[in-house]
Amino acid sequence: MKILIIGSKKNNTTDYFYYNLLKEKGYNIKIFESHDIFNEFYYRNIFNKILFRLKLSNIYYKINVALKKIALNDYDIIWIFKGMEIYPSTISYLKNKTTAKIVNYNGDHPYIYESRGFGNKNVLNSIKLYDLHLSYSKEIQKNLINKFNVQCKWLPFGYEWSKVNQVYHDKKIGCFIGNPDNNRAQIIRQLTNNGIMMHLYGNNWIKHIKENKFIKIFPAVHNEEYLSTAQKYRFQLNIFRNQNKDSHNMRTFEMPAFGCISLNPYSKEQTSFFEENIECFYYNDNNDLISKAKHIINLSEEEAYKIKQNAYNKSISSNYKYSDRINILESYFNEII
């Protein structure tokens, strides 16, 4: 099977996880870094940002011209991740000029966008053109099928790597690792206003929340530092964006794979992965969040460490790793070619 991925070649992107895993399995696979090309242009200087926002830039046009040339190379699958840079007309062109099946995977919501970076008219207007959609969310899968009459399969998130948590004497503090927005800041204030200490790691938190005796802010952490930071706290807070409601997100799998206690928003889909009170905790509203956080903080070190080990063991025994997701993906691709 010959596959062309359209997306990003940056580390820690889902695109690149799948690219490397498919390559390791021996597939003839290439990646066209449409997203990286756009970001390199957009973030180069303020002038480029202004040009793009005023619709005076031709960066999308250049990306689409390049893609049309690259794609004419007898691929079986052309797999587009989100597709903000790809014109609907380009997808139609590829369907007419190649025999490849065109597949879309969107790690956000395909037609409801919280902000500029979550989607655009290219994503929305291309929905009906794909031979197959892949979604992490069963709810989004159902909505795509019913609203747009397209073929859609469920492909949950996963984790890239795991490590046993050997930190027995943890900090009895909650932690959130990620960048801020108003909703995240509001939820964290619910905890700190009720006496629960939180440590926040990410960029620009100081613009959204002030430090006090219950809130400490630290720079962003990545790779090994991300893992070691996560493991030393009593719990890791998970906060859904709107598109994750009734579903799950990447952190659903990341933190248990590090042997961390996750405090997650409740969803039926998420409870199918990890058992409540045994492998993680779920909250339904602000009052429940505060109650569960206090309960986790008050666990003995032995009780907390047991839950961390349960979470880790469930992760590695349940085929939640991205390398396990490849088996699901292969079956979907084989159905359409």
Please provide a written account of the structure:
- By secondary structure, this protein is α/β, with parallel strands linked by helices.
- It has 2 domains: 172 residues, 3-Layer(aba) Sandwich (Rossmann fold); 147 residues, Glycogen Phosphorylase B (Rossmann fold, 3-Layer(aba) Sandwich).
- Helix 10 links the parallel strand 10 and strand 11.
- Helix 2 runs antiparallel to helix 4.
- It is globular.
- The mean pLDDT is 96.
The class by helix and strand makeup works out as alpha/beta
Instruction: Provide the gyration radius in Å.
Output: 21 Å
Compute the separation of the termini in Å. Answer: 9 Å
CATH class of the largest domain: Alpha Beta
* Largest pleated sheet: 6 strands, parallel
Low-confidence stretches: none
Classified in CATH, the superfamily of the largest domain is: Glycogen Phosphorylase B
Numbering strands along the chain, what is their spatial order in the largest sheet?
2-1-3-4-5-6
Q: Which CATH-level-2 architecture of the largest domain?
A: 3-Layer(aba) Sandwich
Total number of β-strand segments?
A: 12
N to C succession of SSEs: EHEHHHEHEHEHEEHEEHEHEHEHHH
What share of the residues does DSSP label as strand, in percent?
15-25%
Estimate the global geometry from the Cα principal axes.
Answer: globular
Total of domains? 2
Helical percentage: 40-55%
Quick check: average pLDDT? 96
Pfam families: Glyco_trans_1_2
InterPro entries: YkvP/CgeB_Glyco_trans-like
Keywords: Transferase
Protein name: Glycosyltransferase
